[in-house]
Amino acid sequence: MARDVLCEVNNCKFWANENKCSAEAIYVVSHKGKQASDSKETDCQTFVPEL
């Protein structure tokens, strides 16, 4: 499992200093079913807007 997950979306609830993700788990989905050809076909469903 990845030790460091980086994220540049600094308005996410899980964003931490140095662009680290502080979520306990990451959920990524594909726009094309169960397979994706590149990162543009995926989204991080873990995102929660910081209030």
Descriptive account of the structure:
The chain is mainly β. It has strands spanning 15-16, 20-21, 28-30, 42-44. Strands 1-2 form a two-stranded antiparallel sheet. It has a two-stranded antiparallel ribbon with strand order 3-4. It is globular, with a radius of gyration of 12 Å. The mean pLDDT is 94.
**Which spans of ≥5 residues are poorly predicted at pLDDT below 50?**
none
Secondary-structure element series: EEEE
Beta-strand proportion: 15-25%
Total E-strand runs: 4
Dominant shape? globular
* Strand arrangement, major sheet: 1-2
Number of helices: 0
User: Largest beta sheet, briefly?
Assistant: 2 strands, antiparallel
Terminal CA distance reads 29 Å
Helix content: under 10%
Integer average pLDDT: 94
User: What is the radius of gyration computed over CA atoms, rounded to a whole number of angstroms?
Assistant: 12 Å
Structural class: mainly beta
Key features?
mainly beta, 51 residues, two-stranded antiparallel ribbon, globular
Short description:
This protein has no helices and 4 strands. It is 0% helix and 20% strand.
List the helices and strands and how they pair.
Elements: E1 15-16, E2 20-21, E3 28-30, E4 42-44
Antiparallel strand pairs: 1-2, 3-4
